[in-house]
Amino acid sequence: DGGITQSPKYLFRKEGQNVTLSCEQNLNHDAMYWYRQDPGQGLRLIYYSQIVNDFQKGDIAEGYSVSREKKESFPLTVTSAQKNPTAFYLCASNGLRSGELFFGEGSRLTVL
Amino acid sequence: SQQGEEDPQALSIQEGENATMNCSYKTSINNLQWYRQNSGRGLVHLILIRSNEREKHSGRLRVTLDTSKKSSSLLITASRAADTASYFCATDSGGYQKVTFGIGTKLQVIP
């Protein structure tokens, strides 16, 4: 079945460690997105990518990095520079001529 | 920055009643969308309304858009316990590439 797969679902990290969250889609979508969700704050855009080898910062990109080497994949690295990384991270994708976003099931990151 | 703001932030109703959620946004848009999220899960797309449309229906859902007031409403008729979830509006401007969300309305439908 077509869809978006995020892994891992749960992740624990010690302070000062980088961690990479995986996002893979087989929907043949050009655009992919990373959002962060905190309680009571809705979804905030971290990074988005329209095509391979290109991406743009969203509203809260500091402390995060991404790559888009393949159309299907858009991994997010949470670096040690991100001061408050504990959150629920959501990956999404859409076709360039369709506004509808398709979401993965999310990755919950907890910093110990 | 978040484009949309939903109102109310929380809503509790009895099964069978209608639920209305509102969304206000700040800048001109191409489209406005509504999504649903069950606790701890990803979001699911419900409906998209274009900036030149005023009303749209999908099953028990009715969405209205007033671009002069920069606002939208989502009506769920004859609610069911299974409708319990958080509902978000999302807007995009430019070329679909930057979709921003509001803070959501948490709906509880009591059986």
Short description, anyone?
The complex is a heterodimer of chains A (112) and B (111). By secondary structure, chain A is an all-beta fold.
Fill in the keyword field for this structure.
heterodimer; A: 112 residues; mainly beta; seven-stranded mixed β-sheet; four-stranded antiparallel β-sheet; 11 strands; 0% helix; 46% strand; B: 111 residues; six-stranded mixed β-sheet; five-stranded antiparallel β-sheet; 58% strand; globular
Total DSSP E strands of chain B: 11
For the terminal residues of chain A, how far apart are their CA atoms? Answer: 36 Å
Average of pLDDT of chain B: 91
Question: Approximately how much helix is present in the residues of chain A?
Answer: under 10%
Give the beta-strand count of chain A.
11
Low-pLDDT regions of chain A: none
Quaternary state of this entry equals heterodimer
Portion in strands of chain B: over 45%
Please compute the radius of gyration of chain B using only Cα atoms.
Answer: 13 Å
Q: Calculate the mean pLDDT score of chain A and round it.
A: 93
| Rg over alpha carbons of chain A | 13 Å
Q: What is the general shape of chain A?
A: globular
Tell me the series of helices and strands of chain A, N- to C-terminal.
EEEEEEEEEEE
